[in-house]
Design a protein that fits this description.
about 230 residues; alpha+beta; two-stranded antiparallel ribbon; 6 strands; globular
Length: about 230
């Protein structure tokens, strides 16, 4: 069962870690490339701020973004800003998200995200947690997948494995870190590819952050995952 209050606290902690790390940068560092193709660190920070506001819209029953083009334009507009402005925007937008999350609400209700995707309101804080943790890694400033909280790693692996479950282009696959196991891909087929690795490497592969070269694969090649 999803505990949205717990996840809101986890988002706050993750945001504090990110802000503390980013505050050590300078204006030149913000303009340097992130680990995301075509995006500077400024793009990542701008996206984090605008995503917080977008999820406030979701919680309040409004469209997440006006449009995909508007979303992209806002990120491009905000990416070149100096460090102090970026920090203030990430901090202030995070506070607005926490305020929206603290408001009395029916957390079992269905909300709409981008591209017609729906979910229960109670899962929105975890979705925000995903944004903060993974994009902190994407900044390339010393925070790695090995550094994210263990609870987050396990839940995000489970979330992404579920996301690819039933996908016709992904063969039936069993994932394991040697202790825990998850299944994904097509269902109803007896033979499954086995993928074994550390939690960080499994998460990195599922989330499109690592190429999977460190994973051990049995009963076939490493499946090619569709884009998130």
């Amino acid at each position: 069962m999803i505990d949205h209050a717990h996840d809101l606290a986890s988002v706050r902690d993750a945001t504090d870690r990110l802000l503390t790390a980013v505050a050590k940068l300078d204006n030149a560092s913000v303009t340097e490339p992130s680990r995301l193709p075509g995006w500077s660190r400024g793009h990542v920070l701008a996206h984090l701020a605008r995503n917080a506001d977008a999820l406030v819209n979701v919680l309040r029953g409004r469209p997440m973004y006006v449009s995909g083009d508007a979303r992209d334009a806002d990120i491009e507009r905000d990416a070149p800003r100096p460090l102090d402005v970026q920090l203030a925007d990430v901090r202030d937008s995070a506070a607005r998200f926490q305020e929206a999350g603290a408001a009395p609400a029916d957390w079992s209700r269905t909300v709409e995200l981008r591209n017609g995707v729906t979910d229960t309101a109670s899962r929105v804080p975890f979705r925000r947690w995903v944004e903060v943790e993974l994009h902190h890694v994407d900044l390339g400033i010393g925070y790695e997948l090995e550094d994210v909280p263990e609870e987050f790693t396990e839940r995000e692996i489970a979330f992404l494995a579920d996301r690819f479950t039933g996908h016709p282009d992904v063969p039936p696959t069993q994932l394991t870190d040697g202790t825990r196991a998850w299944t994904t891909g097509r269902v109803g087929e007896a033979s499954a590819v086995t993928v074994t690795g550390s939690p960080a490497d499994l998460l990195g592969w599922l989330a499109g952050r690592r190429d999977g070269s460190t994973l051990r694969v049995g009963n076939g090649g490493l499946p090619e995952l569709p884009p998130l």
